[in-house]
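Checklist before submission:
- one chain only
- standard amino acids only
- sequence pasted in full

Submission:
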Amino acid sequence: MISINRKRTKTVLLIFLILIVLVLIGLTFYYSGYIEVFRNIVNGQKTEKDIIDGISINDVELNYDSISNTYYLPINLVENEETKLDIKINTNYNIDSKIGDKEFKKEIEITEPIDYTKTYQLDVETWLYNKSYIIKFTNLPSISLNFNENDVGFEYTYSEFSITDPSYKENNSKYQYFDDAEVRYRGGSTAGYPKKGYRVKLEKNMDFGLLGMNTSRTWILDGLVTDPSCLRTKIASDIWNRMNEDLSEEKHEDLRSEFVELYVNGEYVGLYLLKETIDEDLLDLDKDTGVLIKGANWNQIDFNNYSNVESETFGPFEMKYPENKNQYPEAWKNILDKMKKYYTENTKYEGLENNFYIENVVNQKIFVLITQALDNYEFKNIYYSIKNDNKDTKVLITPWDVDLTFGMLWSNEEVKYTEQYGRVEEIVEPVGTKSDDKTTEAYKERWNILIQKALNKEEINKLIDEQYEYISIANSLERENMRNANIEIKSNVNEQEEIQELKDWYSKRFDVINNYINSL
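Returned file contents:
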């Protein structure tokens, strides 16, 4: 009798355990979505699922946008030399794939003439799942960042980094480059936008420059959130570079930048401008005695009270180099001694000639005038640097953050376009200074040289057309404004109207500044 009861108890326990297991399996299936799978099997259907881990074409990994199920390959659409597409699918599934009428498994080589403006549909399926993807080509370089979104902020956090450069041959770089990196948000007022700007610090030292620029490890990804055309920062930077073409290397530093399309954690986030950072390496400052400061605001400065400044900030300036705080007092004194002789003394031209590069200073003032750079006058958004503490070392000026140009301004806590193109006097000199006759003549002489080519209306129109064609040939600007339409200034953008607006504004501004400078 006891034996029978024991058998019954074991049976009941076994049945109970089986029920628990079945419940657990049911819950697992429910929360993992497998119930939908089996329901579809019963109905003779397949479940849509992301069943591939990536696609490469000609051994280059494509960037994936999970929102549109689209893979993008940057390629030189104008000078493309490829005669085939070797498509490889990375997946752990046993798949059947199809592009057009071509069926294959995980790899196919397409050797027929390829239309790089065409969109290809890739259909992939297993016995349970299927998914359709789009393959598109773009002429712009791309950057991919992968990081934990909960960790990123204004402090650096780890990220995977890759960049694809379709013009790698011309740039003497690599088609695709991978690295570990640290990233953080950047920007002041623009940091509040949903489309974020980033500062990226690469782990490895490179023996080539990104997109034909320098070999720096630190870069800026500018989100261009204040500009519906996405062209203002690039055009303004290129204008600055054009103005410096006839100057020796020591008398200027260019603002180098290139358009890229950015993907963050498998999602396309928009059109960006990859920019070099203005730092001690770019400016080739002496490691022990070089100094770099940046105008960060419109605060006033007391040029009579900087004998022992130990803080990172003084007046409108921030100390960017040296990094050792023990060197701050000497660094502040070395650079402000030279700036004081121009900005406060009555002999303005002599102070300018002995402590600055005249062409550099005059170029910066004309640049601010012609672009109406309302965020770059007085001392704001300007870098001042000296290479070393030698007595004859001069101060170099480099503008920065030139997005509020060509009619863009802050109004009621937002950025908007205005046809206001006549503001002049208050942005010619820092507060409290006034040019003497000799300095004024330097402005006039330099202006009349620059308008022959660098600032010529027709030349700037050509520059605008070239950059617009570059970001629109594969619909990159259209993608940008569609993806970021939640930003008011990016919604309902008419590209042609924006381009004409830039040209018209510059033409009117040119006439205003031409009359102003020649009447001084």
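Reviewer check: The chain has a mean pLDDT of 86.
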